[in-house]
Amino acid sequence: MIKTKETLLAQVDRCSKCGACREVCPVFLAKGSEPYVARAKVQLAGAWLDGNLSPSRRLQELMGYCLLCKTCTHHCPNGVQVDRLVLAARAEAGPARRSLVRLAATGILPHPRRMWVAHGVFRLTQGTLTRLRPALQGLPQVPRKPFTQHYPAVLPVARPRRRVGYFLGCMIQYFWHRVGDAAIHVLREHDGEVVLLPGCCGMPAAAQGAAGIARQQAEMVVRQAEQARVEAVVTTCASCGLALAGYGDELSTPAARAFSQRVRDISAFLMETGLNRDLGVVETVVTYHDPCHLRRGQGVWQQPREILRCIPGVDLREMEQPDRCCGGSGTFAFSHPEVAAAIGGLKAEMAARTGAAVVATGCPSCQLQLAGVLDRAGQAVRVAHTVEILSQAYAARLTP
Amino acid sequence: MRDVLVKDLARLLGADRVISQVEDRLCYSYDGTYKTGIPRLVVKPGNTEQVAALVEFAYQREIPLVPRGAGTGLSGGSVPLADGVVVSLTALNRVVELDRVDMLAVVEAGVVTGSLHKAAEAVRLFYPPDPASSAVSTIGGNVAECAGGPRGLKYGVTRDYVLGLEVVLPDGRVINTGGRTIKNVTGYDLTRLITGSEGTLGIITRAVLRLLPLPEHKQTILADFLDLNAAATAITAILAEGIVPAALEIMDDVTIRCVEKHRSAGLPLDAAAILLMDLDGPRETVGQQLNRVGEICRRHGARNIRVAHSTGESAELWQARRAVSPALVQVKPTKISEDATVPRSQVPAMIRRLKEIAARHNLDIAIFGHAGDGNLHPNILVDRRNPAEMARAENAIAEIFEAALALGGTLSGEHGIGLLKRPYLKQEVGSAGMEYMTRLKQAFDPKGIMNPGKILGRCASDQN
Ligand SMILES: Cc1cc2nc3c(=O)[nH]c(=O)nc-3n(C[C@H](O)[C@H](O)[C@H](O)COP(=O)(O)OP(=O)(O)OC[C@H]3O[C@@H](n4cnc5c(N)ncnc54)[C@H](O)[C@@H]3O)c2cc1C
Ligand code: SF4
Ligand code: SF4
Question: Do residues A283 and A190 both lie within one domain?
């Protein structure tokens, strides 16, 4: 803890209080007051770490107003890692807030059995819940069974070139089967023998300040991947990918380090191992939204665009500020619906202005948010994961 | 006590415009300096009437007020001293008018400078003052500090563009100074007096700003020199030929090495100085001037000259300048940015003295800034958690000011006096100057409620 306190204080000291983050922090731009900007979070964290501010409900509330989108860090002349300070403050500085979102992230997602029950309840009440919580609007009809029950644990291919672990994460396992189906289709198009890796990456728990639970999740995921003996661990969720890639530093064990080095976002994996360019035509106008945890989190932004440009018929049109956060940020859209809607509304406008029929992206959490805000803005624009469009292109080749 | 005040102010402005929780107040305790002070309360008035009502209320009860824009100031101007109530003006954020015939803009004090730049450029007009903080700083803060920027050499500073102001005086009355004309000599020039007054004479709520036609074209050129004097004579020669660059920035060897060590921008490590210049105007003229500037630099010993041929390439060259700040924090976490300014002819002498001061106090001082107008920014690199080093820095600062004054310069070119330079003011303006400034302040603000303790005087509760 002393060590971590030092490293955190070093981040605080890097902040020159220049205020440059006021130009870009989406939460600040939506709220318009200093306490919501990155600089304020850094100074609050500093006051707390220095013992000049005792943990309080209000401190937690202010720390809650963060998308963990890294926009500030990217723009900051001094590269202050504000999200790290926010997470640390959430974890250490306060009385636990009891809320449904926190309960879900820490008490349900990490436990497959509880999740299974919750999932069942959710499925039956999806209509009502969506009316109560507009943030759920973009979610597809919730499937009856978890994703892993639709497939064998290992999916063989005729001439396997590599054995790939596909880390599903909660979003694919319970909600976005169409993304999972597409990912498997695409991986098999690349002669990958696919091993399904279920589990929760721990990011939702960490974002809620439950660092201990997040750690346990991490240990479990690493162990599971070791047993599966895979060459690479592929993700279709930007936040899962970022969390997995961070296990090495987080757990500091050789196994975790080796694991994290093998983690790839699916678009990066495909470009790195050689994209199968035997593609059919998909005639459509696409614009691409950069998930924060993909572009700033993992440095992946060219690969999905390259993939889309390879597909015959796809007309890729960039929107203004494609890397501006959509406001979803996992659980943020549920805990802060108004701010999330304001940030998302801007995104919907920027996306729609390109005239695209499809917004492609690389994270189910963004998909959920984008589909919701586009719908509320009255825009008939579809949202799809990059691999869904790619899978469509492979399928188009087969049907004459 | 605070609770009663909260209630009264809430009645006056609306409950959502009064901020009282300590966590929130802490977020108004700082600016771009290392000074801090937690305000007693923060209020966010929404229009001039509310500002006036607030000030009248504060006047009656003698409550000190601290006007605040974006909080990017570099002299501690918006850092409250004990018991101050911060008046955040960012809710006054409308561009009220852009007049293409009279070529002026009417804006509220909380408008972000950069958004005025964009709004003006959209109609082919140009608001030249460009503090490096313009993407977030407010017009109110710019006027209150008389902000400058790289374009100062050719286009002047904020005061050269303020035609008129709407100001809430310390007793709550609202006046309009100046007007909408370039020429105006009616009575004392209160507009110029309020401009640069750092929130000590009143709260600016609105400004009428002069605009220019947007220059047709702009191009960037970068030259490096093995000798500092050579760079300085090149500057003089360029201006002597009648070419006034839109920006003329210098970086010294310490700065260059910091940038290269930590950020690698392709700068030559053995250079003693780098000059970075923008030329603007009609496309043809810019092209011709660019060639001449290149020639002059070469004639004066420039080794390499890089010319940007596109906006993208310009941005690349400016990247080196932008890399300075991030590179410096890699060396030491705390930067004390000074802006002592000297006549242009004394720039090399000043740089030499700064280097002597750095050596004498065993400090790292990186020097860069606006060489064209003599406004250098020596940055002392320290660790605020190291008291011995901070003490050495204090001594160095005193010597920097002495050096600037000895060379015929001034304590501050654009950051203002605020809290940080208050102890040195008398050295520059003298006893009579101090006395008249103090009388002026008293005439405006007899109860001393308007940003007390800044620029002038000391107040009893001054603990910072
Ligand atoms: C990275 C960086 C780069 C900078 N570059 C430059 C530069 O190139 N040139 C330059 O000149 N400055 C520069 N500055 C300093 C600073 O940005 C300017 O002084 C700017 O004008 C401050 O504006 P603000 O809105 O942040 O004001 P604040 O910092 O909030 O306030 C500054 C002063 O103005 C007063 N004030 C604010 N609003 C009002 C109002 N409406 N009425 C009356 N008083 C008011 C405050 O009381 C305070 O005294 C830089 C700062 C940073 C952090
Ligand atoms: S941009 Fe970075 S250094 Fe500047 S105030 Fe924000 S966090 Fe601090
Ligand atoms: S991570 Fe995003 S939301 Fe959080 S402070 Fe930084 S820019 Fe703002």
Answer: no
